[in-house]
């Protein structure tokens, strides 16, 4: 079976996913697109044969020729599309964040629980990155003892013009909110956000931020977000256990020595750093559509991360330590992790 995919939002990652669905992965074909920028939608559709351009994302979902939907529009628009997919019974891959608030994400949980089956896979691609998978295996294997601390840095050289201050939490730090829950296999219980001296490149975006997360077991996580750091795209995670530590290794395959300096290339952006992870996550999605059940990061994971984002935003704007209060986990998600 070839899965016929409709794509909503054909900006940077939408186009990148279309490229991999079309030329890299097996078992899928892009048959329809929509974007609030219709000219962009036409341009992207024109690069392949047989791609219908729809006026709206909801038209993509309603198209009988579309078996499954990929949502890659801005975060605040995800709820409408994901809920419409669930109500239409169509599998949906939704880019992170699931929604910009816990309340909106909770409505998506309600819709999926009402449908009685998982239809959503969320784009937390770090769970498919070979480095993070190896890190998790060491933590779960117990050789470093119980995890006590996690040190994280999430550095972007620059961000897009539509990136506003809150997105450091809802769009950037949200990756760590998910990956920490998944690495330690527990929920985050409180967030404190500190604002260091601002980077002169930051403009209206308060940058960098330093977040302190606390988890159910009492582990502490420090997270630096820097989104104007210029030198490259750099993601760091180290788990400190009772008997040892484990951290992501270098991603560069080579070390260069010249003119008195030893160095390794640093990824330019998220496309380059996580290319393999995006390939594996989307192949996983296509295969799950064929198999008939959604797998991987779930609506619940998106909800949990969104509630942590809420706490992070409260701490960013009002200061202080903000507890995270999740609702009870519905039975639909109990066997996930
Ligand atoms: P982008 O601005 O490059 O592209 C978004 C596109 O969506 C634009 O073409 C815009 O016109 C369109 N759009 C906006 N609202 C729409 C709507 N209501 N209906 C249809 N189209 C709409 O942004 P991007 O960087 O591609 O990010 C898109 C999403 O992907 C965001 O949620 C972002 O957080 C996520 N993302 C994830 C990763 C990752 O590492 N997993 C990386 C980048 C972006
Ligand atoms: C972007 O949307 C992503 O998801 C990238 O992975 C992240 O590094 C970046 O900060 C976000 O803006």
TrEMBL record:
<feature type="domain" description="Gfo/Idh/MocA-like oxidoreductase N-terminal">
    <location>
        <begin position="3"/>
        <end position="121"/>
    </location>
</feature>
<dbReference type="InterPro" id="IPR004104">
    <property type="entry name" value="Gfo/Idh/MocA-like_OxRdtase_C"/>
</dbReference>
<comment type="subunit">
    <text>Homotetramer.</text>
</comment>
<keyword id="KW-0560">Oxidoreductase</keyword>
<dbReference type="InterPro" id="IPR050424">
    <property type="entry name" value="Gfo-Idh-MocA_inositol_DH"/>
</dbReference>
<dbReference type="GO" id="GO:0000166">
    <property type="term" value="F:nucleotide binding"/>
</dbReference>
<dbReference type="Pfam" id="PF01408">
    <property type="entry name" value="GFO_IDH_MocA"/>
</dbReference>
<comment type="function">
    <text>Involved in the oxidation of myo-inositol (MI) to 2-keto-myo-inositol (2KMI or 2-inosose).</text>
</comment>
<keyword id="KW-0520">NAD</keyword>
<dbReference type="InterPro" id="IPR023794">
    <property type="entry name" value="MI/DCI_dehydrogenase"/>
</dbReference>
<feature type="domain" description="Gfo/Idh/MocA-like oxidoreductase C-terminal">
    <location>
        <begin position="136"/>
        <end position="323"/>
    </location>
</feature>
<dbReference type="InterPro" id="IPR000683">
    <property type="entry name" value="Gfo/Idh/MocA-like_OxRdtase_N"/>
</dbReference>
<dbReference type="Pfam" id="PF02894">
    <property type="entry name" value="GFO_IDH_MocA_C"/>
</dbReference>
<dbReference type="GO" id="GO:0019310">
    <property type="term" value="P:inositol catabolic process"/>
</dbReference>
<comment type="similarity">
    <text>Belongs to the Gfo/Idh/MocA family.</text>
</comment>
<protein>
    <recommendedName>
        <fullName>Inositol 2-dehydrogenase</fullName>
        <ecNumber>1.1.1.18</ecNumber>
    </recommendedName>
</protein>
<dbReference type="GO" id="GO:0050112">
    <property type="term" value="F:inositol 2-dehydrogenase (NAD+) activity"/>
</dbReference>
<dbReference type="InterPro" id="IPR036291">
    <property type="entry name" value="NAD(P)-bd_dom_sf"/>
</dbReference>
């Amino acid at each position: 079976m070839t899965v016929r995919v409709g794509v909503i939002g054909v900006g940077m990652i939408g186009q990148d996913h279309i490229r991999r669905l079309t030329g890299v992965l097996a078992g899928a074909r892009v048959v329809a697109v929509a974007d609030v920028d219709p000219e962009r939608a036409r341009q992207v559709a024109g690069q392949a044969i047989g791609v219908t351009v729809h006026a709206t994302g909801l038209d993509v979902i309603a198209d009988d020729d579309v078996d499954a939907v990929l949502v890659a529009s801005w975060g605040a628009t995800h709820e409408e599309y994901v809920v419409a997919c669930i109500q239409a019974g169509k599998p949906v891959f939704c880019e992170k964040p699931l929604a910009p608030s816990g309340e909106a994400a909770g409505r998506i949980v309600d819709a999926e629980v009402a449908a009685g089956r998982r239809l959503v896979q969320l784009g937390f691609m770090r769970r498919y990155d070979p480095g993070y998978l190896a890190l998790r295996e060491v933590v779960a294997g117990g050789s470093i003892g119980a995890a006590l601390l996690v040190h994280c840095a999430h550095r972007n050289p620059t961000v897009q013009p539509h990136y506003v201050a809150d997105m450091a939490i809802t769009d950037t730090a949200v990756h760590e909110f998910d990956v920490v829950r998944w690495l330690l296999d527990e929920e985050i219980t409180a967030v404190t956000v500190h604002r260091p001296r601002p980077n002169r490149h930051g403009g209206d975006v308060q940058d960098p931020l330093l977040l302190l997360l606390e988890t159910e077991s009492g582990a502490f996580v420090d997270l630096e977000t820097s989104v104007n750091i210029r030198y490259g795209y750099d993601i760091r995670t180290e788990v400190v256990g009772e008997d040892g530590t484990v951290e992501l290794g270098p991603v560069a395959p080579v070390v260069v020595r010249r003119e008195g300096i030893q160095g390794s290339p640093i990824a330019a952006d998220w496309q380059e750093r996580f290319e393999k992870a995006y390939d594996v996550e989307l192949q996983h999605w296509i295969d799950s559509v064929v198999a008939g059940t959604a797998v991987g990061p779930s609506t619940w994971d998106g909800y949990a991360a969104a509630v942590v984002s809420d706490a992070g935003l409260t701490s960013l704007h009002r200061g202080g330590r903000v507890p995270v209060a999740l609702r009870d986990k519905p039975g639909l998600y109990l066997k996930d992790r």
